[in-house]
Amino acid sequence: MSVPDGYFDVPPGKIAAVVTSLEMLAPPVLPPDPVGDWSLRRVARPDPAWYRDLYARVGREWLWTQRLRMSEAELSKTIRADGVEISTLEHAGGDEALLELEFSKKNECELVLFGVTSRLIGTSAGRFLMNHALRRAWAQPLTRLWVHTCSFDHPRALAFYQRSGFRPYRRQIEIAPDPRLDGTLPREVAAHVPLLA
Questions:
Q1: pLDDT at 197 over 80
Q2: Mind listing the pLDDT tens digit for each residue in 2-27?
Q3: Parallel, antiparallel, or unpaired: how do β-strands 108-116 and 144-150 relate?
Q4: Tell me: the pLDDT tens digits for 105-139?
Q5: Is residue 171's pLDDT more than 80?
Q6: Angle 143-147-150 (CA atoms, 0-180°, nearest 5)?
Q7: Res 172 pLDDT > 90
Q8: In this structure, is the dihedral angle defined by the CA atoms of residues 126, 131, 134 and 139, taken in order, positive or negative?
Q9: Cα separation of 48 and 131, whole Å?
Q10: Would you say 101 and 84 are in contact if contact means Cβ atoms under 8 Å apart?
Q11: What is d(CA 29, CA 27) in angstroms, rounded to the nearest whole number?
């Protein structure tokens, strides 16, 4: 497909992001686990209400909305599906991170969701969680681990994935309804993405 160079208007009520997909084809050498006031917990059968709350707290500023728009039945089926593993970091009596791995394709794993709440940003909890994700994924007979991020995510997300051993292989433009205009997210979140009604 050929797309001409230039600028293109994004329709009113929509947002546009650059999505970068990254992959890893062999286990990386991991840095030491940082020490912190958190502990890892695998959630075997996540409750949809628990998941939706944590998903929103981790992803609100980065305009995560896909799982918020699912019905409870659809969300429950998605997060409890065979091959899906969900973990969190417990900190100060609460769950403050979301890690979702999907092993549904033979010899592949998708790092579906990865993030910490604002309480843990800058504490090295993300490195701790990534080390766990990489160890867990590559404990399986994989030939490929992949993830995607976008220009709405934390400004250091792409560099973090690359430092972790992922390499970019695809770039796309995604246009979607602005979730702050339909009530999915509060209007005041994600100030780094202009709100254009």
A1: no
A2: 778 999 999 999 999 999 999 999 99
A3: parallel
A4: 999 999 999 999 999 999 999 999 999 999 999 99
A5: yes
A6: 155
A7: yes
A8: negative
A9: 26
A10: yes
A11: 7
Length of the chain, please?
Answer: 197
Residue with tokens 């394709």: 105
- Is 88 in contact with 95 (CB distance < 8 Å)? yes
Residues 130, 175: Cα–Cα separation, whole Å: 28
Residue 126: closest CA among 113, 143, 110, 142:
113
Task: From 113, 90, 88, select the one nearest 102 (Cα to Cα).
Answer: 113
DSSP per residue over 110-127, as a string? Answer: EEEEEEE-TTTTTTTHHH
Strand partners for 77: none
Q: Tens digit of pLDDT for each residue in 68-77?
A: 999 999 999 9
- What's the one-letter identity of residue 45? R
Report the alpha-carbon distance of residue 42 to residue 95 in Å, rounded: 11
